Amino acid sequence: MESSLKKRIKNIKLIATDIDGVWTDGSMYYSPDGDVMKCFSTYDGMAVQILREIGIPIAILTGENSEMVQKRAEKLKIPYLYLGEQNKLSRLKEICESENIDLNEIAYIGDDINDLECLKAVGLTALSANSPIQNQFTPDYLTKIPGGKGAFRDFADWILANR
Fold first, then answer.
1. What are 26-33's contacts with CB under 8 Å, separation 24+?
2. Which of 8, 51, 97, 153 could potentially form a cystine with 43 if both were Cys, beta carbons 3.0 to 4.6 Å apart?
3. How much is the average pLDDT of 19-46?
4. Are 107 and 89 in contact (CB under 8 A)?
5. End-to-end CA distance of the chain
6. Are 121 and 12 contacting, i.e. CB atoms less than 8 angstroms apart?
């Protein structure tokens, strides 16, 4: 691993994440009544706990306005949750002001074109293994595990192993 990448990893003070395609496999399950359900991996939840214990907060920025995501974030005590967010980069800049950090101190994991602006602006990047934008953006880390199966945990473990 090159020393500049190692330095950027050590510099991370917050991890921001998309949900669909990272914490989920991107599928939406509809009940006959029209209710939407999503499946989350407990591995990702454990990553949040591990990161919190070492002082790295998490921010969720998702274009979906999902009650299930809200409940999952509340259960995991994630400090920054933005549902229905259409301008993720502006929100990241607000978080930077709140945390008194720079964009280059943020790690971001996403999976699709609505994440590109953030991916191009932050200090450390990842795409989930099932990301459809791998030909458009080369991340610092491509998870070995697809979204919905522990991709966020894989990214967190990679960061922790290289700090």
1. 26/111, 26/130, 26/147, 26/148, 27/148
2. 153
3. 92
4. no
5. 12
6. no
Phi, psi of 125 (to 5 degrees): -130, 155
Domain 3-161: top CATH class: alpha beta
C-alpha dihedral sign at 20, 143, 74, 72: positive
CA–CA gap between residue 27 and residue 89 (Å, rounded): 24
Return the DSSP state at 84. T
For the four alpha carbons of 129, 2, 56 and 97, in that order, the dihedral sign comes to negative
CB atoms within 10 A of CB 68: 16
Residues 93, 116: contact at Cβ < 8 Å? no
Confidence check: pLDDT of 1 > 80: no
The tokens 């994630």 sit on which residue? 78
Query: How many CB atoms are closer than 10 A to CB 118?
Result: 23
DSSP secondary structure code for residue 41 in this structure: -
CB 59 within 8 A of CB 92: yes
